Automatic annotation (TrEMBL):
Keywords for the protein's UniProt record, in alphabetical order: Cell membrane, Membrane, Transmembrane, Transmembrane helix
Protein's organism: Leptospirillum ferriphilum YSK
Keyword Transmembrane annotated: yes
GO molecular function, one term: transmembrane transporter activity
One GO cellular component, as annotated: plasma membrane
Topology versus the membrane: Multi-pass membrane protein
Transmembrane regions: 20-42, 272-303, 324-353, 365-388
Coiled coil: none
Record-stated family: Belongs to the ABC-4 integral membrane protein family.
Location of the MacB-like periplasmic core domain: 18-241
Protein name: Multidrug ABC transporter substrate-binding protein
Subcellular location: Cell membrane
Length: 402
């Protein structure tokens, strides 16, 4: 207790220098806490966005195309058709439901209001596959798809842009100069994992989009729901086998499609988010090491300034171990106080991001505790060399030091 008291009194003699010495630890600790929390929040957003699509979802996309010897990325070919989606629905027992989808950009008008948005063509099963609901009205039926009806479901943002707070159900809009009757409004969904605003689109029957707007026969993607989480791999194999047969691809041939379970995408996103969080923490931890170097530098200066004091203590019976303990306690107190202040600043930053920005930044209590202990350890490690130097001073030489 006496040694601890001496350490605190020594630090209190030069409060300004003590605060400046702590600054490196304060900044490093606050940066580590804030960046880790933001990384965890980003991970939460990404995983929520992916899970929002459905945990049992499989995404079938066409393969890549080769243009002038250069292979373009997956999803650029036009090998999937509406018949493929219907064949999957009928011929894959492990698939609960599926829906083909195709999208393009378009201009939607209602009176004097107009809005440029995404036009998404789907089948009547789309909402069930996506685990999505309507906030108003109804969705189109299989009969509408086969009849290529001009009916539309508006996303929440499109409805607000065109009709304000009025009820748009039953009213008419123009999509690329063709009239469509609004029969429903989608419930809010937010951003997709690819960054698309899912509330900023209009959904129409896929056959209407193919024949009356785009003039194509292919589909962009097929979304399929497995009957259960355990049946995802089986569903993937059944879809791959069926499409190989339909597209006349031999067993050893390169498929013109790919089947991607959302569970694989979730694992990849989770791993990448974790790596990013660890990387951010490692970068911020460099500030802690810099702060430790600052502590060692100040402690070396302190040893030189207090050489005579050290000689007096040794002369009246202090042992080398007492000197080492005193200086280690001083450096540990510096780093622990800096770490505690940094944690408080980091927590304040988390509050700001949560309340002002709306970012889901959690409070990593366990990580905060570990960071505080780590900052204290840095103080001990970087204070060890000055402490040992102080304990090895010759008492007679130290007493004559001016």
């Amino acid at each position: 207790m006496n040694i601890a008291g001496l350490a605190f009194r020594s630090l209190a003699r030069n409060p300004f220098r003590t605060i400046l010495t702590m600054l490196g630890i304060v900044i490093g600790t606050a940066a580590v806490i804030l960046l880790v929390s933001l990384g965890m929040g980003a991970r939460h957003l990404v995983l929520d966005s992916i899970n929002n699509l459905g945990p049992n979802l499989l995404i079938v996309i066409p393969g890549s195309v080769t243009d002038s010897g250069a292979q373009v990325g997956g999803g650029t070919d036009t090998t999937l058709t509406l018949d493929d989606a219907r064949a999957i629905r009928e011929g894959c027992p492990s698939v609960l439901e599926d829906s083909a989808a195709l999208r393009t950009a378009g201009q939607v008008l209602s009176g004097a209001a107009n809005w440029s948005t995404v036009i998404l063509g789907t089948e009547s099963t789309y909402l069930a596959v996506r685990n999505w609901e309507l906030s108003q009205g109804s969705f189109f039926t299989e009969k509408d798809v086969r009849a290529m009806s001009r009916v539309a479901i508006l996303g929440r943002k499109v409805a607000r842009r065109l009709f304000g707070f009025a009820d748009p159900v039953g009213k008419w809009v123009q999509i690329n100069h063709s009239p469509f009757q609004v029969i429903g409004i989608l419930s809010p969904k937010g951003q997709s994992p690819m960054g698309m605003d899912q509330d900023d689109m209009v959904v129409i029957p896929i056959t209407t989009l193919q024949t009356q707007i785009m003039g194509v026969t292919y589909v962009g993607v097929i979304l399929a729901n497995a009957v259960s989480t355990d049946g995802i791999e089986t569903a993937k194999q059944e879809i791959s086998r069926l499409l190989r047969i339909r597209h006349h691809i031999p067993p050893d041939g390169r498929p013109d499609f790919s089947v991607n379970p959302m569970s694989d995408i979730t694992r990849t996103a989770n791993r990448l988010s974790l790596i990013l969080t660890v990387l951010l923490a490692a970068i911020a931890s460099i500030s802690l090491l810099v702060g430790g170097i600052g502590i060692m530098n100040i402690m070396l200066v302190s040893v030189r300034e207090r050489t005579r004091e050290i000689g007096i203590r040794m002369a009246i019976g202090a042992r080398p171990g007492d000197i080492v303990t005193q200086f280690l306690v001083e450096s540990a107190v510096l780093s622990l106080l800096g770490g505690l202040t940094g944690i408080l600043l980091g927590a304040g930053g988390i509050f700001l991001f949560r309340d002002l920005v709306g970012w889901p930044a959690p409070f990593p209590i366990g990580f905060m505790t570990a960071t505080l202990l780590f900052s204290g350890g840095i103080g001990v490690v970087f204070g060890l060399y000055p402490a040992v130097m102080a304990s090895r001073l010759d008492p007679m030489v130290a007493l004559r030091y001016e």
